[in-house]
Model the fold of this input.
Amino acid sequence: MFRCLLRNARYAVSYQAQLDRARALGLKPESRPVVSTQSSWDRQMMLETARAEIDNTAVLINLLKPGPGSLIQLAATKTEEDIRVLGTDLVEQLQKKIAIMNAHWQDYNRIFTSPNP
Done:
């Protein structure tokens, strides 16, 4: 479980750095990519990082589902929750995270040229 939490943090930081880099480069998708256009390294790396984060979060959910309080200390109330103490709705928050990431999967097309093999 500890490894999952570490991976989750690593993926989140890595993803944000990749997104910041793409924005700083001012990348814009081609409206009509020529046939045989491949995925750029930046696009591929972001997709792989996002996929790894989703998969890792799913593993974390499966570990926590039986009873998160038995594996990690949780805040007793919402007011006691902070950046170091997670809330009792941790599993629901992680499920929401996956749902949001999946719902926005096509957003990469707004940043990068889509492959056209």
Q: What stands out?
A: The chain has four helices and no strands. Helices lie at 2-25, 41-64, 68-71, 90-103.
